[in-house]
């Protein structure tokens, strides 16, 4: 009997396409507010995707401040996150707007702003009569989501000529902050038919009140990749996330793109602003094996706040041959284990291959008894057997989940819970989703728990966006190669060698194989694993006291760390009196050798920049990627090694110290150690070590790189110390003399200025004046892009100036 009823329902649903023809008209686009507002910024700015952000020229009581984060992670884009409006008392922004539906993005980067610490940012946000957030703990939300920052998205129908956003701290000890506000006029994306899924498996018609506020909770490009705001359709600046982290179990199905001869054709009934073509041009289906397909459900699990109504929008489009006709692929859609549609056929609904369509359903998520106030929303697709389609399979191209303000004027829910998994893990935020198809079951569960925060529709992790805009190709996201390696944490796979092994490896510590030497002894090249792997073997001869301690420190530190820009330790030998460490062989030696021009040809500028960026990444990892932070204490050009591909690797951890946790204020006291010319004067004076001492030494490295001169130049009669020598040039206004003569004509002007200014900031006399290594890294990348940019302009000019072919 139930089946009967469902079949009727199914027939009824098949009538829907004609109803879907009605809703859209572009007349709603008449009002065109497009406001990007950079809170706390005194100047207008342009973000990396080309959007113009207005300055914060509102006048506020003096109790609110415009502040910048004390430490800004380099993975966080500077606009709008490098400034914020912060206050311990309520404050309100009033924006004049035209009437109609507005899409709102609120940007929050939970960081320390002057004396306002991130953990005390707990506040409410209202927009006119709507409560958007209540007791919102920005750092908890970002942490639970494992995002650097949080973007909350809302849709509000502006009925009065001003939209007022009020930020109210939750208690006398907390403060409120906001980094950016976007207000974009939106066409009417929520009209059209909605079907309420009830627990009797009988969807009924459902109306959305135009005066409700709506919050976007998830927006997934199913089977596709992250789509950044600038590539959204309809100039709505939405982000679309990869769906893979939300798939249940190992049943990932297959994700695929449109056949090359299929293009997306929007029917009249479906304007392009509903979703960009890129969403429809990728999909996930169950897979080629029909027997397998019949035995599982393609399932997504999305964690949502309980006690709300949710609108689920499914986007469909058939994009591959041979599916062009009705009854080739027919499937059932379940929401919360209730039947939403039985016998859904995309071609029948859309009208053909390459033609998109979408379906809306509303589901009630009752208040759960769970303590944390979250419920898993189950969405499942299952092949439909009754219709005997040609293929037992299902398909989905996109999925959006919106929270409705159906009862009362509030959308506020709980802060997502930081699961145990993430506490004290010592792991950095993972800005890049795990690689597809490699998930094990446990990782999927982890992914889902991250999803909890989807609640706070934290659109995406930012790196991703900045990386994608930088490195993105049309069809595949390419995370920066540096980046993918950044987070890799070691299993301490450190091998133990016998003395005989290493004697064999180095041909009996053959003098002809010595590649370096120092106070500790000598470094030999050698091979292990039957000649398959070339290694560097550092043999401590006649070690005592300090020397032994340094070897131990290096072994202890390096066996715990693995990073693309740190030299890797392969193993060690501790037989009898011998202390020997075995490393990856760095075939191109150290950076110093490539600057002096004595042993090797001086490096071109661009390569020098790349090496500096690599080394900065290595240091950034030491300072922020591990807990407790590691202070290297002996950063210098001869400790930056280069592999065959010129990848920079920081080496020599014999002097390193576990640093203070957190940034800036704390320090470790210890006997002053380091290398002359690189030593932080403040550290020498106060005997207090902080990460900023590494920054000082790295500044000296930068000066060596740009000038080609050594840190201490005994031959220089005027001034031995490179830092002092550069200061002299600065005072004389002769900075061009700082440039390595080998680099003349090669370095772009703006790049040179930025680079030298950065190096000078790093070697500032006091540590508070020096930037954190993350900012150094960011500035280096900026300098690099200036170089590329100016170089390209130069080439353009040449094209114009030089008419020869
Ligand atoms: C702020 O600046 C914008 C232009 O950037 C201007 O339209 C607006 O009137 C200014 N507001 C105030 C309060 O000065
Ligand atoms: C906010 O969340 C953080 C966890 O990230 C927590 O340490 C802090 O105590 C919370 N703040 C308040 C006021 O509850
Ligand atoms: C916004 O609200 C007004 C007044 O309630 C209503 O007439 C209008 O249709 C609404 N617009 C949208 C796009 O919902
Ligand atoms: C498009 O390409 C597919 C193979 O990729 C082929 O099977 C199909 O016939 C082609 N269709 C048209 C209309 O050319
Ligand atoms: C749906 O069914 C699965 C088992 O098939 C169960 O684990 C899950 O909790 C159910 N979901 C809901 C919301 O009832
Ligand atoms: C698929 O999901 C539906 C609804 O929850 C359930 O009745 C059915 O048993 C599931 N099928 C499989 C193979 O898990």
Automatic annotation (TrEMBL):
> Transmembrane helix: is it a keyword of this entry?
yes
Q: How does it sit in the membrane?
A: Single-pass type I membrane protein
Give the stretches traversing the membrane: 444-468
Q: What is its main location?
A: membrane
Per its UniProt record, what Gene3D superfamilies does this chain match? Galactose-binding lectin, Phosphorylase Kinase, domain 1, Transferase(Phosphotransferase) domain 1
List its EC numbers.
Answer: 2.7.11.1
Which residue numbers delimit the Protein kinase domain?
Answer: 509-794
> What is its subcellular localisation?
Membrane
Which residues are ATP-binding?
A: 538
PANTHER family on file? OS03G0124300 PROTEIN-RELATED, OS04G0586500 PROTEIN
Q: What is this protein called?
A: non-specific serine/threonine protein kinase
Annotated source species: Vanilla planifolia
Q: What is the lineage of its organism?
A: Eukaryota, Viridiplantae, Streptophyta, Embryophyta, Tracheophyta
């Amino acid at each position: 009997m139930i089946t009967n009823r469902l079949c009727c329902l199914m027939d009824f649903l098949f009538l829907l396409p004609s109803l879907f023809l009605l809703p859209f008209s572009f007349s709603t686009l008449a009002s065109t507010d497009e406001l990007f507002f950079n809170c706390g910024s005194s100047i207008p700015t342009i973000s990396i995707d080309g959007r113009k952000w207005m300055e914060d020229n509102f006048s506020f009581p003096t109790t609110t401040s415009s502040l910048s984060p004390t430490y800004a992670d380099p993975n966080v884009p500077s606009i709008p996150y490098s400034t914020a409006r912060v206050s311990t008392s309520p404050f309100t922004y009033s924006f004049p707007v035209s009437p109609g539906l507005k899409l709102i993005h609120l940007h929050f980067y939970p960081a320390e702003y002057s004396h306002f610490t991130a953990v005390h940012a707990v506040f409410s946000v209202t927009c006119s009569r709507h409560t958007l957030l209540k007791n919102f703990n920005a750092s908890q939300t970002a942490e639970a989501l494992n995002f650097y920052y949080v973007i909350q998205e809302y849709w509000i129908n502006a009925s009065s000529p001003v939209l007022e956003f009020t930020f109210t701290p939750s208690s006398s000890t907390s403060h409120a902050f906001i980094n950016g506000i976007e207000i974009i006029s939106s066409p009417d994306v929520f009209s059209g038919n909605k079907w309420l899924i009830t627990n009797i498996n009988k969807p009924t018609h459902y109306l959305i009140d135009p005066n409700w506020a709506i919050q976007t909770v998830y927006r997934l490009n199913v089977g596709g990749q992250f789509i950044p705001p600038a590539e959204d359709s309809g100039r709505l600046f939405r982000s679309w996330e990869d769906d893979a982290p939300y798939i249940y179990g190992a049943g990932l199905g297959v994700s695929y793109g449109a056949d090359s001869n299929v293009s997306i054709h929007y029917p009249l009934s479906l304007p392009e602003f509903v979703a960009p073509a890129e969403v429809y041009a990728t999909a996930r289906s169950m897979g080629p094996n029909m027997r397998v397909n019949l035995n599982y459900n393609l399932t997504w699990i999305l964690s949502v706040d309980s006690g709300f109504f949710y609108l689920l929008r499914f986007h469909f489009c058939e994009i591959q041959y041979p599916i062009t006709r009705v009854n080739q692929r027919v499937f059932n859609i379940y929401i919360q284990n209730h039947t939403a549609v039985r016998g859904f056929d995309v071609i029948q609904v859309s009208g053909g291959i390459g033609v998109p369509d979408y379906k809306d359903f509303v589901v009630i998520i009752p208040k759960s008894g769970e303590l944390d106030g979250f419920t898993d929303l189950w969405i499942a697709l299952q092949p439909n057997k009754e219709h005997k389609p040609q293929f037992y399979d299902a398909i989905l191209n996109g999925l959006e989940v919106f929270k409705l303000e159906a009862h009362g004027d509030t959308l506020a829910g709980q802060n997502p819970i930081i699961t145990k998994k993430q506490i004290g893990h010592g792991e950095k935020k993972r800005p890049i989703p795990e690689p597809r198809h490699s998930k094990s079951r446990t990782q999927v569960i982890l992914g889902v728990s991250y999803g909890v925060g989807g609640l706070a529709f934290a659109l995406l992790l930012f790196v991703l966006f900045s990386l994608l805009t930088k490195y993105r190709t049309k069809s595949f996201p390419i995370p920066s190669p540096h980046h993918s390696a950044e987070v890799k944490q070691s299993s301490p796979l450190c091998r133990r060698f016998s003395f005989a092994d290493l004697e064999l490896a180095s041909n009996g510590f053959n003098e002809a194989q010595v590649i370096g030497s120092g106070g500790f002894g000598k470094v030999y090249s050698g091979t292990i694993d039957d000649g398959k792997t070339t290694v560097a073997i550092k043999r401590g001869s006649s070690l005592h006291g300090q020397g032994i301690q340094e070897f131990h420190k290096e072994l202890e530190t390096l066996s715990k760390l693995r990073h693309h820009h740190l030299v890797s330790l392969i193993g060690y030998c501790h037989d009898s009196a011998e202390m020997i460490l075995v490393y990856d062989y760095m075939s191109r030696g150290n950076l110093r050798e490539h600057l002096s021009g004595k042993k090797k040809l001086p490096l071109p500028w661009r390569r020098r920049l790349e090496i500096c960026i690599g080394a900065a990444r290595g240091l950034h990892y030491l300072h922020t990627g591990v807990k407790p932070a590691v202070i290297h204490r002996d950063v210098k050009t001869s400790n930056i090694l280069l592999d065959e591909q010129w990848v920079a690797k920081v080496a020599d951890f014999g002097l390193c110290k576990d640093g203070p946790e957190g940034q800036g204020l704390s320090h470790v006291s210890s006997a002053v150690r380091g290398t002359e010319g690189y030593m932080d004067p403040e550290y020498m004076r106060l005997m207090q070590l902080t990460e900023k001492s590494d920054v000082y030494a790295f500044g000296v490295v930068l000066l060596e790189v740009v000038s080609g001169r050594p840190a201490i130049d005994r031959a220089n009669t005027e001034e031995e110390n490179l830092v002092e020598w550069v200061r002299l040039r600065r005072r004389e206004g002769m900075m061009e003399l700082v440039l390595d003569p080998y680099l003349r004509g090669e370095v772009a002007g703006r790049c040179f200025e930025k680079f030298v200014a950065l190096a000078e900031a790093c070697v500032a006399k006091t540590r508070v004046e020096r930037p954190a290594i993350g900012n150094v890294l960011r500035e280096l990348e900026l300098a690099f892009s200036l170089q590329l940019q100016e170089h390209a302009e130069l080439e353009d000019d040449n094209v114009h100036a030089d008419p020869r072919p």
